[in-house]
Amino acid sequence: MSIRFRNSLRTFLPTLALLALGSEATASTLNQNVSWTIDRAGTTTKYRTVAYGDSIFAGYNGSVSSAAKYSAPTVNAEYLSAQWGTDIENVRRTKSGAVASDVYNNKIVAERSYMQASNTRVVSFEMCGNDGLQARSAFKSQSGTCDYSGLTAAENSCKTYVTAAMDYINANAYAGVKLKVVSNLHYPGYAADNVQSSCKDASTGATVKMQDKFLPALARMNFMMCDMARQKGFTCADNFAQYMGADYDSNGDALVDSDALRYVAGETQASYVTRITSTLRSTLRDANTHFVSASSSYDYIQSDDTHPTYNGSTVSAGLFGGTTGSGAARYTSFSGGKSPIWNQYGHERIGWAVSTYNPATP
């Protein structure tokens, strides 16, 4: 081994170790870009979908060198391929650990060329999860009098950059794009947050239940994303409802829980927040145990209590570059518009949620 290589390795390994620590509260970010084509038999026509975001769309799995092959955007590409009868190239331009400003500036804006290609038909994005996670981590470390300004700052940043992202995509995406989607936030660690804070509220002098502070803030962020989508020509994949509510009626209100929790176009923020934090709060469940019936459940969250579970293998994505490849779809048709595993993994559920808005033709 040469001296130059040994010195380079000594410099590289500490960086690798730092990135491997995790993404919830660290400042580390990791580019995880992948291009995967669903290669459908009997056609050479190919359309593109582009997905911008952080570790959720990246398919983060705890590794600095790989990610889920079938993260949500690629899952949706399978649905599109079956619906349109064509090949679908899914381009994921993502950065794990990135806050909303980073996703906007260094992915959506800096890498706009991907959505400007003339075969692009779908553009989707997600952001704000790391803004919330970092604010939550900072709040949990507080002692003395509680300071809520970090949570407020996360909300404000989310609104600023979600709005900017929609405006920028509207102005810069290829004119033939048929669908633009924003995905909102699930609540990772919901059960773990059912504890009191270490700090004390200035008004009451008592500690506060962490869920009671974080859930309303998350609800306001999610409402903003979906309502902004309504105003700006986007659709909203309501991941909070898909993850946090069961797929049956658990409270006897004649509505499936995951449907009852969904954003309703045109409702007020006050109405939505009340519904999520009060009226239907008893139906919320940690997504580690997502009930598909009264007696059957699946785990939507990996062991880090943050990132979605996934089906299938991984692809290179991270420090050693990203995969560009193709392969046949796992499923070539979908009975009732759903794959056999649509509700069994976190990424499958997001991909299906996006697919419900897919246009009939390209």
Give the structure's gist in a few sentences:
This protein has 362 residues and is an alpha/beta fold. The chain has a single domain (3-355), classed as SGNH hydrolase (Rossmann fold), CATH 3.40.50.1110. Helices cover 38% and strands 18% of the residues.
What secondary-structure arrangement, pairings included, does this model have?
Layout: H1 3-19, E1 30-31, E2 34-38, E3 46-53, H2 55-58, E4 66-68, H3 72-84, E5 87-96, H4 100-109, H5 113-116, E6 120-125, H6 129-140, H7 149-172, E7 179-183, E8 196-200, E9 207-209, H8 210-232, E10 235-237, H9 239-244, H10 257-260, H11 269-279, E11 290-291, E12 297-298, E13 314-318, E14 321-322, E15 324-327, H12 346-355
Parallel strand pairs: 2-15, 3-5, 3-6, 6-7, 7-10
Antiparallel strand pairs: 1-5, 2-5, 4-13, 8-9, 11-12, 13-14
Helix pairs in contact: 3-12, 4-7, 6-7, 7-8, 8-11
Structure description:
Strand 11 and strand 12 form a beta hairpin. The longest helix is centred in the middle third of the chain and has 24 residues, at 149-172. Strands 1, 2, 3, 5, 6, 7, 10 and 15 form an eight-stranded mixed sheet that branches. 38% of the residues lie in helices and 18% in strands. It has helices at 3-19, 55-58, 72-84, 100-109, 113-116, 129-140, 149-172, 210-232, 239-244, 257-260, 269-279, 346-355, and strands at residues 30-31, 34-38, 46-53, 66-68, 87-96, 120-125, 179-183, 196-200, 207-209, 235-237, 290-291, 297-298, 314-318, 321-322, 324-327. With 362 residues, it is of the alpha/beta class. Mean pLDDT is 93; it is low at 1-26. Helix 3 (72-84) packs across helix 12 (346-355), helix 7 (149-172) runs parallel beside helix 8 (210-232) and helix 8 (210-232) packs antiparallel against helix 11. The chain is built from twelve helices and 15 strands. It has one domain (3-355): SGNH hydrolase (Rossmann fold), CATH 3.40.50.1110.
